[in-house]
Design goal:
Elements (H helix, E strand, L loop, with lengths): L18 H10 L4 H9 L7 H23 L2 H15 L21 H24 L4 H7 L1
Helix pairs in contact: 4-5
Length: 145
C-alpha cells in the first residue's frame, strides 16, 4: 500500500472550502429528496391544453389498436373472456383492469363493453368463416379458371 511518503506518488494538497463556498452550496443545494425532485421536474415544460388533447387522442388510438389486435385472435378473445369472467366473479376489481374506473357513463361499464366487443369480433369471424367455406359461385369459379 502506498502512502504520501512513497517517492512515486505525488499527492497534491487540496484547497479548503471557504465560508462563502459552503454558504453558496447550502443555498443552492436541495434540503431533501422531494425538493430535489421538484427542482428536476421544473426543468421540463408543462403540457399545454392542445398538447394534453393530442396526448389523449394518441392514447385512445393506441388503446383501440391494442384492443383490435387482441380481439383479432382466438387466443386474445379467450384472454378477454377470462378477464370478463374474473370481473363478474369479483376475482378482479375494475380498478385492476380499467385505466379510469368510474368515468364511464351508466350502462357502459367495462364488463358490458368487453362483452359487446367479444360478440362483435365473434360475429365478424363467423362471417369470414362462412365466406371462405361457402361453395364457390359461378363468378368465383370463372375467376379461378
Amino acid at each position: 500500500m502506498k502512502t504520501a511518503n512513497d517517492n512515486d506518488l505525488s499527492l497534491e494538497p487540496t484547497e479548503l472550502a471557504t465560508a462563502d463556498d459552503v454558504h453558496a452550496y447550502a443555498v443552492d443545494a436541495p434540503s431533501d429528496a422531494l425538493e430535489l425532485h421538484f427542482r428536476q421536474l421544473s426543468q421540463y415544460p408543462l403540457l399545454t391544453a392542445e398538447g394534453e388533447l393530442a396526448l389523449a387522442r394518441e392514447l385512445e388510438r393506441a388503446d383501440a389498436e391494442i384492443a383490435r389486435a387482441l380481439l383479432s385472435s382466438r387466443e386474445g378473445r379467450d384472454a378477454v373472456l377470462d378477464l370478463l369472467t374474473a370481473l363478474r366473479a369479483k376475482e378482479l376489481a375494475i380498478e385492476d383492469v380499467e385505466r379510469n374506473p368510474g368515468q364511464s357513463p351508466p350502462g357502459d361499464e367495462l364488463d358490458v363493453r368487453l362483452e359487446r366487443a367479444l360478440r362483435r369480433f365473434a360475429a365478424r369471424d363467423e362471417r369470414q368463416r362462412r365466406r371462405t367455406s361457402a361453395p364457390p359461385t359461378r363468378a368465383r369459379r370463372a375467376a379461378a379458371s
